[in-house]
Amino acid sequence: MGKKYIAGVSFADNAAQVAVLELRRDHVSVVHLEEYKNGMNDGVWFLESLREKKAKIFKKVSKVSIALDCASVILHSFPMDTSLNHAEQREHLKWELSTIVPNAQPEEQINDVHVLRTRTQDGVAEMFVVSARRAYLQQIHRALDECKYELHLVDTNHFAGQYALAVNYPEAKEKTIVLASIGEQRMDMGTLHNSKLIGYRYVCESLPEEKVKQLAMFVREASAEALYIFGAGCTFAVMKGLQELGDVKFTKTNPFRRVPISSSLRDTGLILGQEHKFVACVGVALRK
User: Fold this and answer.
1) What value does the CA radius of gyration of the chain take, rounded to a whole number of Å?
2) H helix or E strand, kind and range, residue 97
3) Pairing mode, if any, of strands 15-23 and 28-37?
């Protein structure tokens, strides 16, 4: 088996990150990383570097996976009666989404539905849906296809972060933990129990002290053993605030903890102290 190259792209807060992984038979390594700001006017600006093949390595890339900004999709949790049949479940989901986007037609959305928890005694399941505009995903597909790339898969920053966490922090798999994707204006928090998502919440907040307050509240409500954070919003002020709380054990997630980086890339110093920004792009590239 020869070398294969796959790119992972993530974006949020007007900045995009790209990671290129080199895949061999029994070895995966990161051979290219970059971050750039939104410099294009179209809706797929985060693909700019790949489309223009600014780095030579992009000519070797065959597949591209995308981690969407959580703000670009609908994230919604709601209770559902477990006695409903499949048709009734679809109708319930349709109604739930109509309360958020009143004029949207079902065929205009692509939905990824998860069961967070089931309260058997109450006959209720707590559901969680990620809903993306079909036209938006088609635009991404066309843009990549025009450049001879295969769109491998599409996820969100938070779910891509979950995969990076599982690969790099296996000790977290059998615990109850909180994983938080922290942006400049928004924060997405998920509770993972034995690697399964059982709770989710997001808040739109830019003040570091408010982010710390919301994180602490979510961790305590979840009775979590640890907090893992990533994203451009992991600023000194946020980390200092968490440290001052004392009772919230947190880790700034490093997607290269168990995923090797090429020596030439490491020598550039690009990622030193910035590892947390590349969690989602590395995570989505690692997904199979």
Assistant:
1) 19
2) helix 86-98
3) antiparallel
